[in-house]
Structures
1.
Amino acid sequence: MTATMTVTRLAPGVLAIAIAGDLTAASEQELMAAHEHATDDGAQLVVLDFTGLEYMNSGGIGMLVTLLVRSQRRQQRLVAVGLSDHYRQIFELTRLDEAIGLHTDTAAALASLP
Amino acid sequence: MTTDGQAAKGPRDAANWAANRERLEVNSDAREYGYNVDGMRVAGPQQGFGRLWQRTFWVDLGPAVTPQALIADWRAHFGDFWPRMGRFHGAVSGIAPGDVAALEVGLPTGTGPALATGVLVLYADDTSFSFMTPEGHMFAAMITFSGESVTTGTRAQIRMLIRTSDPLFELGWPFIKRGEADFWKGTLANLAASHGVAGATVEEETECLDPARLWKNWRNIRHNSGIRSAWHIVTSR
């Protein structure tokens, strides 16, 4: 099983990518395509919604590092919502939380916007 | 409380990840080599300084070994496959999530002074395992070792996302890049030979993912393991 990516426009310049299922290196094309879609739609803030995430290996976290770099080069902000305690701890362990803001849900992420 | 490699309930991958921790502490049987690791934090590519590279090395082993058998052997004897220029001081039981191993990297002859650093085993399952580097390591990196199924059988692969940690290591990148390639190609050749594939061709692909240097992290030089190793050698004589 691989992950499914669903891109949703939340507000002008704000797009969400809902990631559901198993996030591994096998999902790279889908994730990068979803990010391209969000970029083409003018995203300045990309919300990664992990509510439906069921499994992630180190290939998955590596892809998120790559996605973070792509976003930074395009002056986009990246935030994550819907992480379970387990996956939140992995973000903290790998120090991804220092570059990707963590919020409980999409409403909290949008409320944090300046 | 979740412990390394143990989780009675929760996601399927819970037992594969290291438990969260703020600071690293080297495994008790390698403490004498862990002086550049104890008390450090992990440092991923976003905490490094230099350009971001994705490097991949691989060797095809044919149908004689499955990805699962390959990774079981690699995890059990990880340091045994290293070329003479490196010494890996991991747990006797092999690679497991949460282990913090010390390592030394020196001259190709395996003699003379060596740079001491280490790794955290971030993740391990039956077809892959991954390391993260500590502050002060020459690279701020994630490195994944995997057994892949390909049409000809099994492929042993090493893929890494790396930035040099500080401006000094970035200056040395042209030499470090070549040395690192020799190191991992030597490792994969040794691994292949142990599985009956003599004279295997190890392939390499290197791609620059981000040409920008992260100047906000230039102060990482205070943890530089090369400088600290030299100081340790001088002061311990």
Note: Chain A touches chain B at residues 54-59, 61-62, 65-66, 68-69, 72-73, 84, 86-87, 89-90, 92-96, 98-99 (CB under 8 Å).
2.
Amino acid sequence: MDTIANDFTINIATANGTGSQSANLILLQSLFEMGVPVSGKNLFPSNISGLPTWYIVRLSDKGYQAPGDRTHIQILVNPATWEEDIAALEPGSVVIWNSDTKKKTVEREDIISYPIPMSSLARKINPKIAKLVTNIIYVGVLAELLNIDQACLESAVARQFKGKSTAIELNITALGLGRDYCKENIVKEDPYVSESRKSEKPQFFIEGNEAAALGAHYGGVQLLAWYPITPSSSLAESVIAYGPRLRSDDDGNQTMAVIQAEDELAAAGMVLGAGWAGGRGMTATSGPGISLMQEFIGLAYFAEIPSVFWDVNRVGPSTGLPTRTQQSDIAMLYEGSHGDTQHIVLMPGTVEECFEFGWRAFDYTERFQTPVFGLSDLDLGMNRWACEGFTYPDTPMDRGKVVRDQDIFDAFETFGRYLDVDGDGVPYRTLPGSGMAPILYRGTGHNPMGVYSEKPEDYYNLMERLKEKINNARDILPAPILREEEECEVGIIYLGSMENTIQEIDDILEATGLKVSQCRVRALPFHSEVQAFIERHKTVIVLEINRDGQLYGILRRELPNNLVTKVHSVAYSDGMPPRASIYADRVHAKLKEVSQ
Amino acid sequence: MSDKPARAIKLNVLNEPKDSYTGGPSSLCPGCGHDQISSVIITAAWENGIQPHRIAKMSGIGCSSKTPAYYLGQSHGFNTVHGRMPSVTTGAYAINKDLLYLGVSGDGDSASIGIGQLIHAIRRNMDMVYIVENNGVYGLTKGQYSATADVGSKKKKGAANETQPIDLCALAINLGCTFVARSFSGSKKQLTSLIKAAMSHKGFALIDVISPCVTFNNNDESMRSYGYVKENEITLHMADYIPHFNPIEEVEVPEGHFREITLHDGSIIRLETISEEHDPSDPMAALTALHKAEVSKKHVTGLLYFDASKPSLAEDLGLVDTPLVDVPDEVLRPGPESLDALNAEFLS
């Protein structure tokens, strides 16, 4: 039998709260340490314990990180989804199942069945924690079947349980039991194996949320005000966790405050208070939190208060699917709050960018004196991604036009808080406590001196300046990433975590004879390079993980009329991380539709 | 100061004239209680000898929240959004804990839309003075009842209010607020002492000031009109404030019973008993006084409750001594070696 190495998908069906997550991470990490290009997706419920969870591990020498179209190896531990999981399998798939599960068996003739008495094996170790150990048993079985390196396995266990020797020992014993049972009782009939690869550059796994949190520290965050919400909580918790290490003096006192607010409104208010006082404040939330923060977002825009908001997008509208992923907050962020507004949105597509935009967000918000959003999503934020390391900021902190010294202040002929001295739309500010040019900040209309005004020309000029200020940011914000070959007629514009699927989509399209260029947008307002990309192509598809094509909508409105007709939307979302074939099919369908 | 000519402008302990503490002209209705409170704020800050630029004036939305424009023109201020002043103040405080945060709010701002933020600021013992200019009606929207309107009280137009009011002082005492006082905009002396004492307090100081709305709620049937409050005020005690920089002998010692409370900056508030003695360290006594006043349709004023023992938010935040706004960028951003170490650990 020919083997299939590093090109298959494992689906592990368990219930949440049973300890399966650590078993699954050990499996992922051990493959990763072998150098196998591997990715893991946790499809978990909005629940603490007992509801179905699937963990998808994809091994792909091509580096594909999307979940893939089908399951090749199914692990069955959860009786609740048993029949459904079996029915979904294609002929020839493998099922590794817990044969101790009451009233459950595997009867399909067209699949390869490996019954394993996981519960009995687990009970041998410790009956009291048999349920927990069951999960690590299937990892032992997989290790044997897939030929996973024992040293890598043990190193992954050690990493997972960081120095807790009892847990490490217990897990290694359980892995051995699974391996041994498999060796003695199972005859391998399937072709799937893992093979070590020598990676060119060493890499590690990290979640986008942790990367963004580290970035915030290297941006010198001074206040984190937050309210817990999935899937952003781990971003805030990582900021907190790194505080003692990165931000403490010898006595353990920190240069960063953390306040868990009473709700998202208060969290946003605190961030504005910090910005007003001259500090770097941030919050981390998800769509429902941003909905609640709208009023303050408008105040920050109008009163020109630096403030950083991270939105780890989950599925909306309303409570939606709290533990599923989507790119559906783009429009809300770009035009947040009532009245005419326009905001800077940074859209990382990799963990490296989560880190980089984590610190740059503060530079932009202080430079432009306007709220800045980081838009990540559940897929990027809560799953682990390979990373070669983070790069230290290459520029000093940009604190913007803050007048701190009396001499500098005295040199101003006239000082007005909202006076556009330099003609770039960005005024100068002084800080509370400084005694220089004190004003009463407000969300009401004001003149360049910061005094309340309802005069038509004051309002008009203020709104025009704000527009100009954001417009001037375009080409200073991160430029799009272009992958372009001259002969391509079709270009694809996409954003964010779609980065992890785009290569596979591209390969599928190319296999059908369609070569496309790619443009990954990394910030709003659009960089001028985006329009140039559209100009160079005959047809452009905007690919995004939502229903309405939000990025497309913004683009359409901002492009010159003669370019609008070139641009088309392919938007799709079912809550799952993007699967390449779905988008590739829809790109084909759209091209067919527009060519008619 | 004896070498000054007799007609010289009066100066405070910082040699500042009172003019350094005034603001712009008020646009409120003539006779508004809020303007009296603004003038008391000016006096209190001046007499307390606080550098005006070290005060941050905070407010929400409403008639009361417009007043920061009318006092302390040398202070930065933030007229935020409706009911959300406490959170903005909390964020500013985290960045610059050395400023004196002076919040002014109204009954709509504090008892309705912003009651959650008020409650949580109290819970954190956020270090600020929080004055509620409480008139029982919404002024800017032309006279609707607010959540503090007393049962049976009737404003100029419309029916009497029959909905149970929220007593912000009782609420604050129940939440463990560390400084709770009620006063009346017409009781200038008492209010001045209370605001001065609140400025010397470390922690959340709530002063609920009955401040009649002359336009919508100053008729005889209103329980928050000048006439009604003057007739029905129960004053717990006379209050005298003795600043920490004044020798105590200079203050006239009142006769009879009095109680002295030392505040965090060493200043003293001296409470002179009027009828039965009130113990401000006893929350039950404070709640009883409020309850008795309510059933007899009266307003009790004075320092209701005080507790100096609780840590304020500053202690909870675990920050370096330097206010974060003054921490240099090189200290805020961890050095490159720390990132090298992290990268190496992740890779190991």
Note: Chain A touches chain B through 70 residues (CB under 8 Å).
3.
Amino acid sequence: MTGFLSALPGAISQGLIWGIMAIGVYLTYKILDVADLTVDGSFCTGGAVFVMLFSAGVNLWVALLAAFLAGMLAGLVTGLLHTLCGIPAILSGILTQLALYSVNMAIMNFKASVSLPIMQAEVLNKLLVSLRFVQGALNGSYPIWRHPIIVVGAVTIVLIAILYWFFGTELGAALRATGSNQNMAQAQGINTDVTKVLGLMLSNGLVALSGALMCQYSGGNEIKVGQGAIVIGLAAVIIGEVLLDKVFHNFALKLLSVSIGAIIYYIVIQAVLQLGLNPNFLKLLSAAVVAVFLSIPYWKGKYFHGQVKVQAAGTDMGAEAKIGGDKNA
Amino acid sequence: MLEIKDIWKVFNAGTVNEKVALKGVSLTLKDGEFVTVIGGNGAGKSTLMNAVAGVYPVDAGNISIDGVDVTHLAEYKRAPYIGRVFQDPMMGTAATMQIEENLALAARRGQGRGLRSGITKGEREQYRELLATLGLGLEDRLTSKVGLLSGGQRQALTLLMATLKKPKLLLLDEHTAALDPKTAAKVLETTETIVQRDKLTTLMITHNMRDAIAHGDRLIMMYEGKIAIDVSGEEKKKLTVEGLLEMFSKVSGSDEADDKLLLS
């Protein structure tokens, strides 16, 4: 139990970082109604771009911005494959993800792993987040506000505020309309190809930003770091929705619930690991959890609303028969 | 206002399922003309409507709206000229968005969408008043999700959205067919009011012959991808269901069409 409690701040920090990625997944999966698998590759792209630029002495914020833009570029490729070339969204994402493996390797100078020189104090101090600050902020060697929970929490709130504003604008509303009803969007003069590409870019930008933060947190970037990211993202989205959908109605709060979902996911993972699960089984566990939660709405619809559907169909037929009768009269 | 010149549309060309849906249809609508379109299943009514709206390209022919050739324009690029209400009440509105958000989206049809606010305070007031004219109590539910509304309410809202920015052409594709008779009558009444008020050039498909006769200044009947009957003016005013059926039998050369039309 003490082991679990002492691991808790780290789990929450990690959850918050993945939460930013999960918000990206939310944008495509929930708002745009597209399952975008680019995520598994673009998460690593963010980390790769960050680690190379930052190691070369580029300013932290510039490196973070570059990571965000690199993610947007990945989203652009997926978007163009989907809209311009007519490839189904899910396949477009898979193609980009596959291609990104090579691209990420190239960015990292064909090394499977690149570390940040965090042993040097002046490098470490420049970072926004690090695993070392988790303990450091608690034992006094770093100011408390440098704790990753506070730093990433603040970043998350700023991002949610920006997204809340954006989705309230004309363009943001057009994006939501595209995901809600493409027919309607087109009938209202919205170029749904443009809005889809834009949504994919925004989403992957956030995912890459999350990757860049994770790279700092863990002190470097590995080529396999984003593997299964989409599943973690979906898990966070679904956990947040199942637990908080009834309480949170405002859009900003819905985004927050995704972040909370990611934190809960990491706390659960931490707990399971403490119980002695072989970490190699984590992916199986994650996939199983997501599969179960994704099935719930379907089962609910199938086994609890069956009767209502039959009744509704009955009335419809009745109405049609009446119309027919009118015409014949 | 609308000029359709000899348009052809073939589905599944070159396969056993080949279907020539439109066989050289030409039709000109004057400014402010309200035309009703009837015809049996597969007569080409919806294909005609979708061809005008740009849902799919036509294989031959020309379509222009208010002098602008739109034949090769994408659907979303024609949207500034066209207001549409679909047969399926689910199709015309975004269910997961609020009533006022749907209206605000429609209010920006044909404009660039940037980073200005998606809806302003002034608009809300305007929408409240507009919704009140429907008499469905929607004016007090501006922030309700459209998914919570009934089919009739959604069609009425779609109609409002289609005409919010006065369109050059209003396309109604059996927009009352999925509603119960009472709601259908109400939506049709609202349609008539809006079309008269704004003097909209309108093309309305209907399955109901009596609606087709009662509304509009001109009636078209389609048969096998062509316009078989075109009645307007005094002749249209005197039209009865029986008269229309008789005309149709002459054109199609058979009686079986009667049943087809009535039962479709």
Note: The longest helix of chain A spans residues 2-31.
